[in-house]
Amino acid sequence: MASRRALQIGGATIAVGGVYYLYSAGGNPKVAEKKLEHDVSAASARLRGQDLSSTEAQKKAEVLAKEAGATLDRTVDNVRADIRQADRLITSKMHEAGSKVDQLKDEGTKALKDTSKELQQTADSFDKKVSQKTSEAKSGISSWLGFGK
Predict the structure, then answer these.
(1) Predicted local distance difference test score (pLDDT) of residue 142
(2) Which positions ≥6 away from 64 have C-beta within 8 Å?
(3) CA distance 82 to 76
(4) Could you give the C-alpha distances from 46 to 9, 42, 52, 148, in angstroms and in order?
(5) What is the pTM of this model?
(6) Which of the pair, 53 or 103, is modelled with greater confidence?
(7) Between residues 2 and 28, the one the model is more confident about
(8) For residue 143, what pLDDT is reported?
């Protein structure tokens, strides 16, 4: 039972350590492996210099596991903070984009109304000139034929 528990703790420690080393290496497994080898050799050198009983070794392992857990907790907290910051930035940019779309929509609607008004004025002016010229032409033709002024 105790060996099973120790195996579970050891497995969890290895998994946490692996995640820690991979994260600290920026996701590069080769760099993480080098850091792990360095730390293992340093820990091995520390242990070689001391004659530890099994209870002392277990206590040291628990301390190391707690340190690894604390490091993992800090790493997780940092990642969560980064995610919250990115979420705030994305939300801010979405609001900016929505405002810009609304502004462009309003400007486009105004430009369309202005253009429509100018087109209507031009059409009215053209219609007025055509009517005037038609009237002048009718009176000219009528006067040639003796019907008018």
Answers:
(1) 65
(2) 13, 43
(3) 10
(4) 21, 6, 11, 125
(5) 0.39
(6) 103
(7) 28
(8) 65
CA dist 93 and 87 (Å) reads 10
Q: How many CA atoms lie within 13 A of 52 on its CB side?
A: 15
| AA letter at 66 | K
63-66 long-range contacts (CB < 8 A, ≥24 apart) are 64/13, 65/9, 65/12, 65/13, 65/16
Using alpha carbons, select from 74, 62, 57, 92 the residue that is nearest to residue 19.
Answer: 74
* Residue carrying structure tokens 């002392």: 56
Token pair belonging to 98: 């929505």
Place of tokens 């929509």: 105
Q: Poorest-confidence range of 20-29, 77-86, 124-133?
A: 20-29
